[in-house]
Amino acid sequence: MNIIIGIDPGTTKSAWVIYDGESKKILSKRIDCNTDLLAQLYNIETDRRVFVFEWIESYGMPVGKEVFETIWWIGRFWEALGDVQKERIYRSDIKTHLCGSRRAKDSNIRQALLDKFQGSGGGKCPQVGTKKKPGPLYGISKDLWSAVAIAVTYWEKRKYEIC
Q: How far apart are CA 77 and CA 27, in angstroms?
């Protein structure tokens, strides 16, 4: 399966991208209210796709209600997809894969993703580009960076494991 749907779940909104690993193209990207995403997942085309969720991991510290709310939504999304192939990936695995360190920050992950995409757009950052000359990561902002990181990491780790 070369179509990966990376989902960065949140308490009220979730970011998701549809990524073609073979061509290294982001086919679609959105940040939706969780109720809207849930409705879409019940009806989304699932053939030859894998859905990958960023999973919550413990760091040994107490957590707040936001963490439990996010886990609740992940469960609802998971159930909505039925028997479709679904996977979980930890943030620490994403950091280690993309940056070589569990201590990587969001800015390090963003830079690692920029390095993976060809700069074909305009402006200072050709991987993102401009409105007139968009790059392959045009329109990626906020939590969409995490969704891209989820999809890219899953694809690359899967590809290396198969070889």
A: 21
Task: Supply the pLDDT for residue 163.
Answer: 42
pLDDT, tens digit, 9 for 90 and up, residues 74-118:
999 999 999 999 999 999 999 999 999 999 999 999 999 999 999
Per-residue tokens: 160: 């290396």
Q: For residues 65 and 60, give the distance between their C-alpha atoms in angstroms, rounded to a whole number.
A: 16
What domains are defined for the chain?
3-162 (3.30.420.10)
Q: pLDDT by residue (tens digit) across 29-47?
A: 999 999 999 999 998 878 8
* Whether 16 contacts 37, CB under 8 Å: yes
Nearest 10 degrees: Cα torsion 141, 142, 145, 151 = -110
The 3 state secondary structure assigned to the chain is: CCEEEEEECCCCEEEEEEEECCCCEEEEEEEEEHHHHHHHHHHCCCCCEEEEEEECCCCCCCCCHHHHHHHHHHHHHHHHCCCCCEEEEEHHHHHHHHHCCCCCCHHHHHHHHHHHCCCCCCCCCCCCECCCCECCCCCCCCCHHHHHHHHHHHHHHHHHHHC
- Please choose, from the candidates 162, 163, 160, 157, the residue with its C-alpha nearest in 3D space to the C-alpha of residue 6: 157
